[in-house]
Design a protein that fits this description.
Structural class: alpha/beta
Order of helices and strands: EHEHEHEHEH
Distance between the termini: 11 Å
CATH architecture: 3-Layer(aba) Sandwich
Number of helices: 5
Shape: globular
Helix content: 40-55%
CATH superfamily: Response regulator
Largest sheet: 5 strands, parallel
Strand content: 15-25%
Number of domains: 1
């Protein structure tokens, strides 16, 4: 399986990557610093089995990236999980309505991340 971690924080990408590596599910884990780079990496290396997407980033925010992913027919089967500090109910609903498969609030534990990833991927 292949995963894409999209977060402008290098330390957060490292935390998520370490948790994913411990799960022993992924042959490839790719990182991007913003939504625009994520779309480029999906085009180049994708589709991915799961995209873990932060909300607030420079250049292109996670919500806008999610919308672009869902607009592309080739990427319809990719699972997208928002991993963010954004906790306003209307934005959670907005992301789910735009096609997010799951939503994980920061801060989280590695166990919480693993549980959500396994649920989304059904493994």
């Amino acid at each position: 399986m292949k995963a894409l971690i999209v977060d402008d924080s290098k330390s957060m990408r490292n935390i998520v990557k370490a948790a994913l590596q411990k799960m022993d599910l992924f042959e490839m884990i790719v990182e991007a610093e913003n939504g625009q780079l994520a779309l480029e990496k999906i085009e180049k290396d994708g589709p991915f089995d799961i995209v873990l997407l932060d909300w607030y980033m420079p250049v292109m925010e996670g919500y806008d990236c999610l919308v672009k992913i869902r607009e592309n027919q080739k990427w319809q089967d990719m699972k997208v999980m928002m991993v963010t500090t954004e906790n306003q109910q209307e934005n959670v609903i907005k992301a789910v309505m735009a096609g997010a498969n799951e939503y994980l609030m920061k801060p989280f534990t590695p166990d919480m991340l693993e549980e959500k990833v396994r649920m989304v991927l059904e493994v």
